[in-house]
Structures are given as structure tokens and as C-alpha cells.
Design goal:
The chain has 182 residues and is of the alpha+beta class. The protein has 6 helices and 8 strands. The chain has one domain: Maf protein (Alpha-Beta Complex). The protein is globular and about 50 Å long. It binds inosine 5'-triphosphate and sodium ion (NA). Keywords: Hydrolase.
Length: 182
């Protein structure tokens, strides 16, 4: 048995392997599941996981992740639309929107959904920070405008970012649950 991680991103698979080391092998699969329109990452990931499970090899459990940046003053925008907003509005212009606000708090959230045909379970990880003017060359996506403890995620080393990562937190919760079940 192995867990099939549905993602186009090999880096995420490597990260998942670190958390599931000694528990279960992780295999990367690409599956173009329907991303439903919803403001709930849980709902999007759970539907995706069920669809990927049904469309994949019988009996092999799947893991689907969905993540986003939720800005308090913007009622959680861009949230589940983070990838689309990054492509259209862009990170710099999102900063300019938030700059007008007194409250610049935001949160990165990842939800992982696991489906094995019998059950669908979701696991959350999040990190709270502040939206700032872009700084740093590392990371990806919204990292340059997300500050945590005085540093943007783009200014951190990979190790520093992983240690506080929303995805890492979701993976570690999932790994603990999975180990308990198997
Ligand atoms: P998958 O193939 O794994 O589904 P994806 O591009 O859909 O990849 P996510 O659901 O993980 O990626 O994230 C959605 C968007 O949120 C992504 O395009 C980024 O803009 C942003 N994002 C997610 N995690 C981030 C992080 O740690 N730092 C900066 N931006 C992040
Ligand atoms: Na996704």
C-alpha cells in the first residue's frame, strides 16, 4: 500500500515523504479533479480527494491538498482563490489593497483531504502573520508579503519556513492520524 499524493508539485511530495517516513510510502500522481467553487478549503479538498480516489487505481488511498492566504480585513480574500488571484491581481497589488487597512493580519491555511473509499478525513494546518510590502527572494507565491516574527517567508531559509509551515502542520497532523489507524 502507498498513499497517492495528488499534486503537480514534486516538492510537496518530498515534504510529505519526510512526515510519512516509516509510516507509508508516498507516490506522486497527477489527477485533474474538479475544483468546486466554495469558500471552504475543506469542501474543495474533500471533493477532490473522493473524485481522485474514484478515478484512480482501486484500493489505493489518495491525499489532496488545498491551500490559500486569508486576509482578515478582506474577509478572507483571496482564500481558496489564491492561485487565481496571484496570476491575475498579483502579489504586489494585493499588498497595495491591504496597505490601506489598519488590520493587516492574515493566515495561510492548508487543508489535506484523505480518501480511501470508506472514509474521507480532512486535516488543517495554519500559520498567522502580517501582510507587509514585498521583501525577500526565496519561497514562492505570497511569501514576499507574508511576515512572521519580523521576517517575510521569502526571507527565510527553506528549513526556517518548513518549521512554521501551514503545509507542514497539516502533514504532521495527518501523519499522526494515519499512523494511529494503520
Ligand atoms: P497543487 O498542484 O498541489 O494543488 P496548487 O498550485 O493548487 O498546487 P496550493 O493549493 O498549495 O497550490 O496553493 C494555492 C495557492 O496559494 C498557490 O498558488 C500560492 O499562490 C498560494 N500558496 C500556498 N501555499 C503557499 C506558501 O507556503 N507560500 C506562499 N504562497 C502559497
Ligand atoms: Na491545490
Amino acid at each position: 500500500m502507498s498513499v497517492r499524493f495528488v499534486t503537480g508539485n514534486e516538492g510537496k511530495v518530498k515534504e510529505a515523504r519526510e512526515y510519512l517516513e516509516g509510516i507509508e510510502p508516498v507516490e506522486q500522481v497527477e489527477y485533474d479533479y474538479t475544483e468546486i467553487q466554495s469558500d471552504s478549503l475543506e469542501e474543495i479538498a474533500a471533493r477532490g480527494a473522493r473524485e481522485a480516489y474514484e478515478g484512480g487505481d482501486e484500493g489505493e488511498p489518495v491525499l489532496v491538498g488545498d491551500a490559500g492566504l486569508f486576509v482578515d480585513a478582506l474577509d478572507g480574500f483571496p482564500g481558496p482563490y489564491s492561485a487565481y488571484v496571484e496570476e491575475t491581481v498579483g502579489v504586489e497589488r494585493l499588498w497595495r489593497l491591504v496597505r490601506e487597512e489598519e488590520n493587516r493580519r492574515a493566515r495561510f491555511r492548508t487543508v489535506l483531504a484523505f480518501a480511501d473509499g470508506e472514509q474521507t478525513e480532512t486535516f488543517e494546518g495554519s500559520v498567522a502573520g502580517t501582510i507587509v510590502a514585498p521583501r525577500g527572494e526565496g519561497g514562492f507565491g505570497y511569501d514576499p508579503i507574508f511576515e512572521y516574527n519580523g521576517q517575510t517567508l521569502a526571507e527565510m531559509s527553506t528549513e526556517e519556513k518548513n518549521a512554521i509551515s501551514h503545509r507542514g502542520r497539516a502533514l504532521s497532523t495527518f501523519a499522526e492520524w494515519y499512523a494511529d489507524q494503520h
